[in-house]
Specification:
By secondary structure, the protein is mainly beta. It has seven domains: 94 residues, Thrombin, subunit H (Beta Barrel), CATH 2.40.10; 127 residues, no CATH class; 86 residues, Phage tail proteins - horseshoe like beta roll fold; 77 residues; 58 residues, no CATH class; 99 residues; 86 residues, no CATH class. The chain is 9% helix and 42% strand. It contains five helices and 54 strands. The protein has an eleven-stranded antiparallel β-sheet, with no helix packed on it. An eight-stranded antiparallel β-sheet has the order 36-37-38-39-40-41-42-43, with no helix packed on it. The longest helix has 17 residues. The chain is elongated and about 155 Å long.
């Protein structure tokens, strides 16, 4: 018996009760679908006592089958016809995940559980206590895994629902399910449906429609799996990849013997770009073959749920497995319910749809498609103890929520092994625990394996993921060591090393010593930063491009006093620069020149030197050009043309000395003066010279001088 309630303003109102003549809805239909919000549409008359409590986006609408809640959502659309009949359409509660936006982030080396938890926590932070409806969820069971259990993801302002469907289910497979337990609502992320119904679908009873289409064009009985690319290759012109040779008896080919016997040897190459460990690659390649690289079979079934017609059987719900039997079609296996419709007023019209693409394979395995796409922000820190506790809580949820299972002693006469299965048939069971003298193992692909989790009698443990608080071992062989945040890691295969800013290095954190090596197209850059105080920090950087190498070291002591040095090298020149605040010096060297720029330049060598104040000393000098010592309007200038010596006084030429030649080829010193010319007798310490000065060579002329002044000539 179905019942519909409406929670509005903190009070719950009954909208539909089959035992009441007043509280009724009609023209109703509920659709639930795997990993989708679903919908509920219904009509009410204008005189329904609680019509005014159905408010768009504000009312919490719930539908119960007995005590079991089968739908929860909110009104998103309503209309009214000529007779004032109101029709409402509600969207399921998974649509709440459309209301939150994930920020820009870059996440490294996170598990599917950690990434899913991060998305749900962000959603809850945005919607909690903000509106009339509680739109928060708790993280429930998470069984979706990655081949390396290490995801690299971006979030970039998408809705939470879009990120879950694209970056988890879209790439790793799985099912998103809301589960109610007590007063809490959990979101489960399931690799496989974990509930098996006891109501079979049988031709002649409740099987209404059946369609099947088989295609053999994609059959492969063997494959060559290729993992991540390798840096070294035996053939220079060809890329090299991780293969399974080391763990597959020296062969890079995996085959299924029974399939080869039936169809022949048909081999294909398959790529798993994110797998670096050969053992993991072998598992992925085997799973690819057994996942139905034989014949694809499209199956669509439509059936009636006998529970709604009063039969004493469990109801059929979305995200459950149901056995389907049809002898004329040779069908007897379990299928997942992909869609379910309910009609509260006419339960005889309820239907169940199995719209799935299954694979005919020798291990009856379910198809999972795994791809890794790299997309950039900051990862939320996680404490290692809390992450382990979260994983343990998830494991506990997985175990505690197991409500179905069959224990089989095999064989019945003198059992040699114990089987715990999701069905009571060894041939049809997919999830199987097997325990015998050789060990304990779990397979999700049927009785023939492969066994993803195993403990063997020789002491080996095989598992995709091992959760432990402490590990004590004499030797650990790994490809990558990392902490739960993904920020501290060491990749043993590539040598890549990363350390978070909180990591302790002696008495300091790595945040005070930051190093980074980045490589982009056309550039390699390495830098180291040491932040001692807010005002005092050290920084060094080397950048290499196709045509240039640049190195730089700087020290910020105060806001006004910054020290830095830089060397830039190109094919044409080398330049070094040192600066302190606004003062700088530069040396630039080219093939044909050297340029110096500084406030002070000095050198000291064996034969020459120059001090900071500009004093030049040398043993010999050959100077061309003008020598100028005129300062403040007074001084001497030696001109480059003619070797003239010119004396200046008050910025005016006072006298000029020059060596001249006459037409006969005779030479002499000529003095040209713009003022009084005086002579001194320094030997007699006289203030002025008195006497005669001969002029010329062979002219017998003299200049008469008295007290340093020329008085005539003779």
């Amino acid at each position: 018996m179905y019942k519909v309630t409406c929670l509005y303003g903190g009070t719950t109102y009954v909208l539909h009760d089959p035992t009441s003549d007043v509280l009724r809805i009609y023209n109703d239909q509920i659709e639930t679908e795997d990993s989708k919000p679903g919908s509920f549409q219904f009509s009410v008359s204008y005189d329904h006592p609680h019509l005014d409590k159905i408010v768009g986006l504000s009312s919490d609408i719930r539908v119960y089958d007995g005590t079991e809640e089968i739908f929860r959502g909110r009104p998103v659309d309503d209309g009214e016809d000529l007779y004032r009949e109101r029709t409402f359409k509600c969207e399921g509660e998974l649509a709440f995940l459309y209301d939150s936006i994930q920020p820009r982030r870059e996440l490294h080396s996170v598990s599917p559980l950690a990434f899913f938890t991060l998305l749900i926590d962000e959603h809850n932070n945005q919607v909690k206590n903000r509106g009339p409806i509680d739109k928060t969820f708790r993280v429930g069971i998470v069984t979706v895994t990655d081949s390396n259990n290490s995801l690299y993801r971006y979030t970039n302002r998408e809705t939470t629902y879009e990120d879950i469907m694209d970056k988890l289910i879209g790439r790793l497979g799985g099912h998103l399910r809301v589960r109610v337990s007590g007063s809490y609502r959990y979101l489960d992320l399931l690799a496989d449906v974990d509930t098996v119904g006891d109501q079979p679908i049988q031709l002649g009873e409740n099987l209404m429609d059946y369609a099947k289409d088989t295609d053999y064009t994609q059959v492969a009985t063997a494959c060559i799996p290729l993992g991540a690319s390798l840096e070294e290759t035996e053939i220079a012109a060809l890329d090299a990849y991780t293969t399974v040779e080391s763990v597959n008896s020296g062969s890079d080919v995996i085959q299924i013997t029974e399939a080869v016997n039936r169809f022949g040897f048909i081999c294909k190459v398959v790529s798993f770009d994110d797998i670096t460990v050969p053992a993991n690659l072998l598992s992925a390649g085997t799973k690819w073959l057994t996942d139905g690289q034989y014949a694809d079979m499209t199956l669509n079934l439509t059936a009636v749920d006998l529970h709604g017609l009063g039969y004493n059987v469990q109801p059929i719900r979305t995200n459950t497995k149901v056995r389907v039997l049809s002898q004329p079609h040779g069908m007897d296996r379990f299928f997942e319910v992909s869609k379910r419709t309910y009609h509260l007023s006419q339960p005889e019209t309820d239907t169940v749809t199995f719209g799935t693409r299954i694979k005919q394979s020798y291990t009856s395995s379910s198809s999972k498609k795994v791809s890794a796409v790299t997309k950039h922000t900051e990862q939320i820190r996680q404490n290692i103890d809390s992450v382990i506790e979260k994983e343990r809580e998830n494991v506990s949820n997985i175990i505690n929520q197991a409500t179905h299972g069959y224990v089989v002693m095999d064989p019945n006469d003198g059992p040699e092994r114990i089987l715990i299965m999701d069905t009571n048939s060894i041939d049809s069971a997919q999830k199987i625990w097997k325990w015998d003298m050789n060990g304990l193992g779990y397979s999700k692909n049927g009785i023939n394996g492969p066994w993803g989790v195993a403990i063997t009698m020789n002491g080996q443990i095989s598992a995709d993921y091992i959760l432990t608080g402490e590990l004590d071992a004499s030797l650990i062989k790994v490809g990558k060591i990392q902490d739960v945040t993904g920020k501290n890691y060491w990749n043993m295969e590539t040598g890549e090393f990363s350390m978070s800013s909180e990591t302790k290095i002696g008495d300091e954190t790595a945040g005070s010593v930051i190093s980074r090596l980045s490589q982009a197209e056309g550039q390699i850059s390495s830098e180291v930063t040491r932040a001692e105080t807010a005002e005092n920090s050290l920084y060094s950087r080397i950048v290499q491009t196709e045509g240039q190498i640049s190195s730089e070291v700087s020290r910020a002591e105060t806001a006004e006093k910054n020290l830095s040095s830089r060397i830039t090298q190109t094919a044409e020149a080398i330049e070094s620069k040192v600066s302190k605040g606004d003062v700088e010096s530069i040396i630039e060297q080219k093939a044909d020149s050297i340029r110096l720029k500084a406030d002070k330049i000095s050198w000291d060598s064996t034969y020459s030197s120059m001090s900071n104040d500009g004093t030049l000393k040398c043993r010999n000098a050959n100077i061309s050009g003008t020598i100028d010592n005129v300062s403040g309007g007074d001084g001497v200038r030696v001109e480059s043309t003619g070797g003239n010596i010119v004396f200046y006084y008050n910025n005016q030429e006072a006298a000029r000395l020059q060596w001249i030649y006459d037409s006969a080829g005779r030479s002499g010193l000529q003095i040209t003066t713009n003022g009084l010319l005086t002579f001194r007798d320094n030997y007699n310490n006289e203030t002025g010279y008195t006497g005669t000065l001969p002029i010329g060579d062979g002219y017998n002329y003299s200049i008469k001088v008295r007290n340093g002044i020329i008085t005539g000539w003779s």
